[in-house]
Design brief:
The chain has 9 helices and 10 strands. It is of the alpha+beta class and about 350 residues long. Among the domains are: about 110 residues, no CATH class; about 80 residues, no CATH class. A 6-stranded mixed β-sheet has the order 1-2-8-5-4-3, with no helix packed on it. Strands 6-7 form a two-stranded antiparallel ribbon. It is flat. It is found in: Nucleus.
Amino acid sequence: MTIAKTGGEERLIILPDECDASKIINTFTLPPCSNIESKPLIELFENTDGRLYQVKSFQFGKGPSYSHNEDLANDKYHYAKDDHPIKSTFIVNNSNPADGCILNSSKLYFCTLHDVVFSLIGFHYRTSVAEDEQDYVQPSDTGENQTANRKDHERFLTVRDYHDLLTDNHAKNWNHISLRCLESGLTKISETIEEAGEIYYKITPALITRYLVGKVLKITENFPPSFPILKHAPAEIVQCYKVVMATNLLVSLIPKAAYRNLIEFSPSTTDCNFSLEIKASFTNLENYQATNELKNVEKELLMKSAMNVGIGTNGGSVSVKKVAKKVVLSKKPRVAIGKGAIDGFFKRK
């Protein structure tokens, strides 16, 4: 744990065990790996062991956006004029109570490992820019983006040449990343050749897709049990669902063009050793959901039909439509006055 000052503001940063808090840590920013315009820059720092870490934040005393109105009505949180929660952070050393600190902010910063490969993928597809994640379901101009990037990467480059290319054409802060860290990323998504004892690299879309397929496979094999899955679905459909969800989890880390290439991956169309059918998983899950939805519509129609004709259930009586019968009255012949059977009895004398 360390206290850092940024622009005059103190920040509490929880560091990994591998980092030495007694040494000065300089952070820098790079563009978001996904090239999504609505996302902020990512804050990074490289440790002495060559590992790259991303600095993220969590703020106490502030509810989620969807419950803002409810929290406001319940007077649950209190905010300053700049919309920051009125909270403070107390840092206490149990071993030495005199060694403590009070910060006038409720924001806590922590660090997670950052794979430099994702930043390299963002650079390779830097012309593939999206406004937000919703654009990923729209038709892609992947072919044009790949052509544009291939023109920039027609030549094999050394690690140092790639370092200069990234600094000059992507972001100046690439100069804060060591050659050792950069080389560890290039080896995972590049073709290599060796000449005069030096290794040259060239990033290719095929190797990028292969690397991402490996990530999807790892997520699928370690799928969290708390994550909701399809109920009452066949085992093969459940597996397709896991592959689709694992693929979509990478949306926040890769550009749109890389995502479109990934969902088209099929081991039959590449020399990759992976047998993960990503394209087939998307197709099978979509067909299953469409068929299941059609079945639900058919069931609903059958139920409505049953209700309309009055079909009872569980031994209930069957309603019968009542028919109104018309009663026909027969006409009896009228007897003339004085001609009846008893008229003679009452006859005048």
